[in-house]
Amino acid sequence: MATEPETPVAASAKEPAVPSLVDRYFTRWYKADVKGKPCEDHCILQHSNRICVITLAGSHPVLQSGKVIKSISYQISTNCSRLQNKVSGKFKRKSENVHQLIFSSLLLSGAQFLTELAPLCKIYCSDGEEYTISSCVRGRLMEVNENILHKPSILQEKPSTEGYIAVVLPKFEESKSITEGLLTQKQYEEVVVKRISATTATS
């Protein structure tokens, strides 16, 4: 029997099934239709220490059934690569677990500054589609996840954990205001439901 294609609702419904460690230490925020592109939703995991982990939301086209990632690139333009991001100063990653990020972040220098719309990477799929993943929050780029370059499939298999895109550190004075333009988990779920209802009504 053929397997039914996975819908955005089914994909988003899977998110609560990720390890409880994520929800224990992080607050989930969402940016829907990034840069006006339908369903290209991002998820921002905000830790109590201000650190924001940028990931794909469950409804993003890249995470839908049948999508195959051909490659991922942190080369944003000819003169800009997120891989060239060099952080120096009193900065130390005290934990290798992305869900227990603890940073000493005084006197940082060299880290690339990102605006909300700053591109982080580009994802190329086997069907010819290309997706640009944005920061969604203002701050300093602390690190990018080079593991997804070598094994793109982990971005789809574990988007909220090993398949994260990047880590951003907002300014202290902006750590609360950066979420003003983002959606809560409940608001995001409402957006996804409305999309499905609209699609059903027109089909």
Entry summary:
It is built from five helices and 13 strands. It is an alpha+beta fold and 203 residues long. It has one domain: RNA polymerase II/Efflux pump adaptor protein, barrel-sandwich hybrid domain (OB fold (Dihydrolipoamide Acetyltransferase, E2P), Beta Barrel).
Order of helices and strands: HHEEEEEEEEEEEEHHEH
**What is the arithmetic mean of pLDDT?**
84
Secondary structure: number of strands: 13
Runs in which pLDDT lies below 50 for 5 or more consecutive residues are: 1-5, 10-14
What's the tally of helices? 5
The CATH architecture classification is: Beta Barrel
Radius of gyration (CA) equals: 17 Å
Describe the sheet with the most strands: 6 strands, antiparallel
> How far apart are the termini?
24 Å
Q: CATH topology, what is it called?
A: OB fold (Dihydrolipoamide Acetyltransferase, E2P)
Pfam family, one: GCV_H
Main location: other
Subunit structure: Interacts with F-actin. Interacts with G-actin.
InterPro entries: Abitram (IPR039169), GCV_H/Fam206 (IPR033753), Single_hybrid_motif (IPR011053)
